[in-house]
Specification:
The complex is a heterodimer of chains A (about 300) and B (about 260).
Chain A: E1 3-14, E2 17-28, E3 32-36, H1 43-50, E4 58-63, E5 66-67, H2 72-77, E6 79-82, H3 94-105, H4 110-119, H5 133-145, E7 151-155, H6 163-178, E8 182-187, H7 190-194, E9 199-204, E10 207-213, H8 214-220, E11 223-229, H9 236-239, E12 244-250, E13 253-258, H10 263-270, E14 274-281, H11 284-293, E15 299-300
Parallel strand pairs in A: 3-8, 3-9, 6-7, 7-8, 10-15
Antiparallel strand pairs in A: 1-2, 1-4, 4-5, 9-10, 11-13, 11-14, 12-13
Chain B: H1 4-12, H2 14-38, H3 51-55, H4 65-74, H5 77-100, H6 103-107, H7 113-141, H8 151-179, H9 182-202, H10 217-223, H11 226-229, H12 233-256
The chains are: A alpha/beta (about 300), B mainly alpha (about 260).
């Protein structure tokens, strides 16, 4: 199946600084794709290259099979975009913004725009300079969604929204995905996307460090074990086992991350007179933070 | 009907555009209304010919209608206000809006970059034309105040100064696209305009500068007494070619520019 978004070897350098390096992504039609990474990881630079605001130093990005830069007019007609640091014209009202963007796009259904305005309780009749960050962000969301685009490219879309509006936005995303439209959403917060994303890619220092379904990432997460022994034990034996990392050794208590087979671990524990043990899968948040902290940790997967 | 980007930028600059035009028109009206009070004070004519007078754009007899208009409007104040308008907009239109973060929303619309740039050049032309028309009308009103200058020359010099303003505005716009910085673009545009003004005004009294006057866009618009002799086809051609070259440079640079 052809990807709605495809990047191959996408690279962006600013002088000697590499912002995005050799990025290969494929987002398929109807998919909700979460693009995660810490601040400064290269998410916004990638999105700017997808929107042809910036030119790749190397590599290529295509949307709907068209070159992001060379065919930008055709591509932009089918895309709704919300920039990461949304800036509007301070003197214009929300309504004036919406009218201007509707005229520029040509075919925008007034009634669907009105529904969005009501749904997000947009303050449309006051100059943008008088509005809070959250209210400006709501105008940005209306501008991105109002022409019912086939693809939504949203860079940190919930920034500034209150929890109620975040919830409403999440519902809108579910409806959008339900209509078979594609969503590419960047965030630095896992929680924001894990509930609705079909696939997640994690980028750090400009490089893709993981890409999988939410379930796939969850399955790859290590088992978190905690063991209490009758007396202090030497963790070296456990540490030597394949797929085992001793994360804490505190006298008779050991904490382990286990990604390999559990049998050898249990046998070694049993021989050291254990008195109690807990075992649980790592939650995605822990896995996610682990990717943030350890760039060398590569778990790139294309299974889907 | 004006294009969408042109309309947006004109709307954003509506107040400044009106104030520029109204202020310049008021100033021009005061100048023409005062002319009858000064036309017989021939002692003023002794000012002409000095380097100091040349610095202020004063050439020819100050008490003649042409000299009065050159000394008070066409040789200094009108070009200055025109340049403030066009260079200011040239820096703000792309580099400034990119720094403000608003350009990304416009370039993410289904509009070609070169069309965006053409429409912004159009917005600049509308602002400059409004200012030029306001001055021309007020100067023509001066015919009722014994300020009898050729209507054709008045309109031609006003048009030439509009073109001169557009040239510097487009050069500033191109500098903004290349550097991505509003401040740098302003510096380039204002610096070139100041040099152009100095060269054009001092060339009449300092012989060493005289050959350089051909490099000054002021010289080709109002600096060689066009209000008396008219604007030649060569004058217009130079102003047009420079403007088109600056526009082409801006289009080429904007096509490849990285935006924020």
């Amino acid at each position: 199946m052809a990807g709605v978004i495809e990047t191959s070897g996408l690279t962006k350098r600013y002088g000697g600084v590499t912002a995005v390096s050799d990025l290969n992504l494929q987002v398929e039609a109807g998919q909700f794709f979460g693009f995660l990474g810490p601040n400064g990881a290269g998410k916004s630079t990638t999105i700017r290259m997808l929107m042809a605001l910036q030119r790749p130093t190397q590599g290529r990005a295509t949307l709907f099979g068209l070159d992001a830069a060379a065919d930008s007019v055709t591509v932009h007609r089918r895309v709704g975009y919300l920039p990461g640091d949304l800036e509007l014209y301070p003197r214009l009202t929300g309504r004036q913004h919406i009218d201007w963007f509707a005229r520029s796009r040509g075919s925008v259904d007034d009634s669907s725009t009105q529904r969005l305005l009501e749904r997000f309780a947009v303050v449309a009749d006051r100059p943008v300079r008088e509005l809070s960050k959250g209210n400006r962000q709501k105008i940005g969301l209306v501008l991105a969604f109002m022409h019912k685009p086939e693809l939504l490219v949203l860079d940190e879309p919930t920034s500034g929204l209150d929890p109620l509006m975040q919830h409403e936005f999440e519902n809108l995303l579910r409806e959008t995905a339900g209509e078979g439209r594609t969503v590419f959403l960047s965030s630095h917060e896992l929680d924001e996307v894990q509930r609705i994303a079909d696939r997640i890619a994690i980028i750090r220092d400009g490089r893709l460090v993981a890409e999988d379904t939410v379930e796939g990432l969850r399955r790859a997460a290590p088992q978190k074990m905690e063991v209490w022994f009758r007396r202090p034990v030497d963790p070296a034996g456990l540490q030597a086992l394949a797929g085992v990392t001793v994360t804490s050794a505190d006298g008779p208590r050991l904490a382990l991350d286990v990604t390999g087979e559990i049998g050898p671990v249990l046998r070694l524990i049993a021989g050291n007179d254990p008195i109690d043990m807990t075992c649980r899968p790592a939650d995605l948040e822990e896995l996610f933070l682990d990717f943030y902290r350890h760039p060398q940790k590569k778990a790139v997967s294309h299974a889907g | 009907m004006l294009a969408n980007v042109t309309r947006l930028d004109l709307r954003l600059r509506r107040r400044s555009m009106i104030w520029y035009a109204a202020g310049m028109a008021l100033y021009a009206l005061v100048v023409v209304v005062l002319y009858p009070s000064f036309r017989h004070q021939t002692s003023l004519d002794t000012l002409s010919g000095s380097t100091a007078a040349a610095l202020f754009g004063i050439t020819g007899k100050l008490t003649s209608p042409d000299g009065w208009l050159n000394a008070n409007i066409y040789g200094n104040f009108f070009p200055l206000i025109m340049l403030l308008l066009t260079v200011g907009y040239g820096a703000a239109a792309l580099a400034g809006q990119d720094e403000d973060g608003t350009l990304a929303l416009v370039t993410a619309l289904p509009i070609r970059r070169r069309v965006i740039l053409f429409q912004k050049a159009g917005a600049m032309a509308v602002q400059a034309l409004l200012l030029g028309a306001a001055v021309a009308v007020c100067v023509l009103i001066g015919r009722g105040f014994q300020l009898s200058v050729s209507p054709a020359n008045t309109i031609a010099v006003s048009a030439a100064l509009v073109l001169m303003g557009l040239d510097f505005g487009l050069i500033t716009m191109a500098a903004g696209v290349v550097t991505g910085r509003r401040g740098t673009a302003l510096g380039v545009g204002a610096g070139l305009a100041a040099a152009s003004y100095l060269v054009s005004s001092l060339a009449s009294t300092i012989s060493g500068i005289r050959p350089a006057r051909y490099l000054s866009l002021l010289y080709w618009s109002a600096g060689s007494d066009q209000i008396s002799h008219g604007v030649s086809a060569l004058d217009f051609a130079v102003l047009l070619v420079v403007g088109l070259a600056a526009l082409a440079a801006a289009v080429a640079a904007f096509g490849q520019a990285d935006l924020s």
